[in-house]
Design goal:
Layout: H1 3-15, H2 17-25, H3 30-46, H4 52-62, H5 67-73, H6 78-88, H7 95-101, H8 112-115, E1 120-125, H9 132-142, E2 146-150, H10 153-165, E3 170-173, E4 178-179, E5 190-194, E6 204-209, H11 221-230, E7 233-240, H12 245-255, E8 259-263, E9 270-272, E10 287-290, H13 294-306, E11 311-314, H14 320-331, E12 339-342, E13 356-359, E14 363-367, E15 373-377, H15 380-387, E16 400-404, H16 407-418, E17 427-429, H17 433-442, H18 448-458, E18 465-467, H19 471-479, H20 487-494, H21 503-517, H22 524-531, H23 541-561, H24 571-590, H25 592-602, H26 604-611, E19 626-627, H27 648-652, H28 662-669, H29 673-680, H30 686-701, H31 710-713, H32 717-724
Parallel strand pairs: 1-7, 1-8, 2-5, 2-6, 3-5, 6-7, 9-16, 10-12, 10-13, 11-12, 13-16, 17-18
Antiparallel strand pairs: 3-4, 14-15, 15-19
Helix pairs in contact: 1-3, 3-6, 4-5, 13-25, 14-24, 15-16, 19-20, 21-23, 23-24
């Protein structure tokens, strides 16, 4: 057969509308049809021989009596094409079954126990510090039985303590911890838990779902959807932003349940100041500087203490005990620590006596629905959540204030706070283990990562829902794919709550899975050898970061111990050393400026390795770009491209990044909007700018041109200026 004739007729086959329609009827959408055809064409063109029946068909098409015969027979390739497509896409044979399994259009039907009772839904809507959660908790405490579902371990722990202090026996249930109110470990009628851990089978009189607006969270939203639709309680008290009222009402309409809305106003006034801080010299007791990167935390805390002021430090990766200890230190009126430097981790879960919130920056890294990193201005919801921490009701400050570190951020912050909060449009969903097991029954040779991909591609949701981002799940599935585990165990390992940007934690999970697959228990001694316990207090930032990772490893062990008790038998011993590690980390955080100084003096490359695992560049709202995440090799907590820990000389000359003289300095350096933006975002300092200019001048004198050329220089001065810029 002529290869050219075969290729020409294969392409005609591909373009025929009738063939595309037949493909769609057999489960091949446009994407699958194209992929299947590419593979089919490659098979025919590159094979040394094909089956006799396919050869006869190709021969009839290529050597037919005439064009009419040729056109009539090109469709005869379809049975061979479909057979080949089913070899590379096995799910085509059971497409109808798979579509039924992945049909997510009626989530309320997944919870028959909840549908069997008529629930009363009460929405407590209001801003931060409005008393909405307080009223819901009062009803929780007065009920015969109840469950509190919160987004953080700290919040669950707070309700657990408050309930038991009020003589209402309450158990604490988180992914890593079970604490019983009764000494004989009998289950108490009240439970405070993280929302992922709530039971949809146990009946309660009252349930409280806190921070309901997180139902739209791209990664965790499914947990709020599950709680809202599935909790088997006579009363469901939902607390959160008013932006979620419409969605909750619509979701409850599909279950036949009405929503009673109770609106609350802020209990203390909150004022947006007309002036920025501009210099750390203007700090006052009760100030909290909010940063969105660890680098900024390190830098600002160093600058604060260089002024002789003591500060507390709180950021997301700190253990809960350390966060509470730092909050206690800041709140204590007798403690000399009167300044707090924190990330948006203070937005929920901690009670803090803050007078003034100061935004060090208003750009923040986020993960969008596609799992891509973006750096954008904070949303109105985020700004209100953080700003609302100032002037907490019942604290020593009867009114709150909010401003920015830099003058030109203040205008934008006022715009953000003045905008209405965007309504919550959809609720998250996530495939269940049972659904994945049914997929695996039909596709026994597919990997777990492929099963998830196929599930998401075939899933159908209506406009009230979306499928949550599963990149973290797939990352872990690919990482442990080579380890022989049964599907249910593999699924559990892939849902482990870990930060995939921490190599030490990911490596440990891999070792856990490998040891588990050999049916060898992971003992306390094994864990101590792996983590090199006991550990000493950190001498620099790199060691502090490692201790935080070890704490996450202990959390991971405890989380797995409640799912595989026989294979992770030493939870009690691990919890004991985790408390000791928490104390060690607290010492490190209390001495954080000393650690920064030690890191700086040790070696710049080593410091950069610890502190610059971050985003390429900060971007304003007008310059937002998605940044793809190659398996989370970089940290999401930092925004700067270089170490921002200031030297002693810079510490003495601490000017704000965006001082009033900045524009004049820019003009004198002949730089335009790019330099202006980098300076404004704190990615470039005047010293760095002068050094860059000096290096550029040296290169020019030596005949090495970066962006320009000799020919460029011969153009007009205006054009040359643009090239240089």
């Amino acid at each position: 057969l002529s290869a050219g004739e075969v290729l020409k007729n294969l392409n005609k086959f591909y373009k025929r509308k009738e063939i595309q329609r037949l493909g769609a009827e057999n489960g091949l959408d446009a994407r699958l049809f194209h992929q299947a055809f590419i593979s089919f064409r490659k098979y025919i063109m590159e094979s040394s021989s094909v089956s006799a029946d396919l050869h006869i068909i190709l021969n009839d098409i290529c050597c037919g009596a005439g064009k009419l015969c040729l056109l009539g027979h090109v469709d005869d390739l379809f049975p061979f094409f479909l057979r080949h497509a089913k070899q590379i896409f096995p799910m085509l044979d059971c497409m109808d079954d798979l579509r039924k399994i992945s049909d997510l259009r009626l989530p309320p039907n997944w919870y028959p126990d909840a549908r069997a009772i008529q629930r009363k839904i009460i929405f407590h809507a209001g801003p931060t510090n409005s008393g909405k959660t307080y009223h819901a908790i009062q009803r929780f405490l007065s009920a015969k039985s109840g469950i509190y579902c919160g987004p953080l371990k700290l919040l669950a722990h707070e309700i657990f303590q408050k309930s038991n202090n009020a003589n209402v026996p309450c158990d604490l249930v988180t992914g890593e911890e079970r604490v019983y109110a009764n000494e004989d470990a009998r289950q108490a009628p009240h439970i405070a838990c993280t929302i992922e851990m709530c039971s949809t089978n146990t009946p309660y009189e009252v349930a409280v779902i806190d921070e309901i607006q997180m139902i739209r969270d791209p990664a965790r939203g499914w947990a709020w959807t599950r709680a809202l639709l599935g909790l088997c309680a006579e009363e469901i008290h939902v607390c959160g932003e008013a932006a979620a009222i419409d969605l909750v009402t619509e979701l409850m309409y599909t279950t036949g349940e009405e929503v009673e809305v109770r609106n609350y106003k802020r209990l203390t006034p909150l004022t947006v100041l007309d002036y920025a801080l501009e210099s750390l010299d203007n700090l006052r007791p009760g100030d909290c500087i909010v940063c969105f990167s660890k680098n900024d935390i390190y830098s600002v805390s160093r600058q604060v203490e260089a002024r002789g002021l003591e500060c507390a430090v709180i950021y997301g990766s700190l253990p809960p005990g350390t966060k509470l200890e730092q909050a206690k230190k800041f709140n204590d009126p007798d403690d000399p620590c009167k300044i707090l430097v924190a990330t948006d981790a203070i937005g929920m879960g901690l009670n803090l006596c803050i007078k003034r919130i100061i935004f060090n920056s208003i750009v923040k890294p986020t993960i969008n629905e596609k799992g891509e990193k973006e750096i954008d201005s904070i949303t109105t919801s985020q700004a209100l959540q953080i700003a609302g921490r100032a002037g907490r009701y019942g604290s020593s400050f009867k009114q709150g204030e909010v401003t920015t570190m830099h003058r030109d951020d203040l205008v934008q912050l006022k715009e953000i706070l003045g905008e209405p909060v965007r309504p919550v449009k959809a609720a998250g969903l996530h495939p269940t283990p049972e659904q994945i097991e049914m997929f695996a029954y039909h596709l026994p040779d597919a990997t777990l990562s492929n099963l998830i991909d196929i599930f998401v591609s075939l899933s159908q949701v209506d406009g009230l829902y979306f499928v949550c981002n599963i990149d973290d799940f797939k990352f872990l599935a690919d990482m442990i794919q080579h380890i022989p585990l049964n599907l249910r165990s593999r699924y559990v390992f892939c849902t482990a709550p870990l930060n995939r940007k921490e190599p030490f934690v990911c490596t440990t999970l891999l070792k856990f899975a490998r040891q588990f697959s050999r049916n060898e228990p992971l003992t306390f001694d094994w864990l101590c050898r792996h983590t090199k316990w006991p550990l000493a207090a950190p001498k620099n930032i790199k060691e502090l970061v490692h201790l935080e990772a070890v704490h996450d490893v202990f959390d991971l062990y405890l989380w797995l111990s409640y799912r595989f008790m026989d294979m992770f038998p030493d939870a009690v011993l691990v919890r004991d050393i985790q408390k000791k590690l928490d104390d060690i980390i607290q010492v490190g955080v209390c001495n954080i400026t000393k650690l920064i100084r030690a890191s700086q003096s040790a070696a710049a490359p080593g410091t950069a390795e610890v502190m610059s695992n971050d985003f390429p560049l900060s971007r304003t709202k007008r310059d937002t770009r998605a940044v793809s995440d190659r398996h989370g090799a970089r940290s999401t907590e930092a925004l700067s491209i270089a170490v921002e820990v200031p030297g002693e000389r810079r510490a003495k000359n601490l000017k704000p990044y965006r001082s009033a003289t900045r524009q004049e300095d820019l003009k004198s350096h002949g730089r335009g909007s790019l330099a202006n933006r980098l300076l404004r975002e704190g990615l470039l300092t005047q010293e760095m700018l002068r050094q860059l200019e000096s290096e550029w001048q040296d290169q020019r004198r030596n005949g090495r041109y970066g962006l320009g050329s000799k020919r460029n220089d011969q153009n007009g001065s205006k054009e040359t200026g643009k090239k240089k810029k």
